[in-house]
Amino acid sequence: MIRNESEYQKTLTRQAEEKKRLEEHRARLEGMGLNEDELKRALDPLRSFHLQLEEEVQSYERLKRGDLGELSNLHGLGSMLIALRIARGFTQRELARRLEVHESQVSRDERNEYHGITVDRASRVLDAMGVELRSFFEEPVLPEASGGEGAESRVVNT
Questions:
Q1: Domain count, the chain
Q2: Which sequence ranges form a coiled-coil region, renumbered to this chain (predicted)?
Q3: How confident is the model over 13-66, as pLDDT tens digits?
Q4: Which of 86, 22, 67, 26 is nearest to 49 (CA)?
Q5: Given 65, 90, 107, which residue is the final one in a domain?
């Protein structure tokens, strides 16, 4: 996952280098007289890496546009906190300043995708970014409401 503008720029450079390398390798292999199946087998690992870089770039660009996706049952909360920082346009340094911690703490937290973060700490990070998280329960919450006559789906805001 690309976490900042510097990594984004490096990935763009690497992506361009890998594309050139792939084209040069293909030309060499074609010069050796390989058929299409042989070319495919030889080039697939390089294509795979190039596609991975492309996917990371597109993902970062989506985050910069604010396209964060959804969070379900708090799965992926750490990744979502990183995505929010990127979407809000904060650097790790700026978030650290707002949290009143050292930048290395934010960097370490993000590298570990906030593994084991407490609800209180997640709330502090959200507050520091000026973001409010709202959650609600979908589906019937009460067991007797899950089936039978007259059962209704309820939404409970938290």
A1: 2
A2: 5-32
A3: 999 999 999 999 999 999 999 999 999 999 998 899 989 999 999 999 999 998
A4: 22
A5: 65
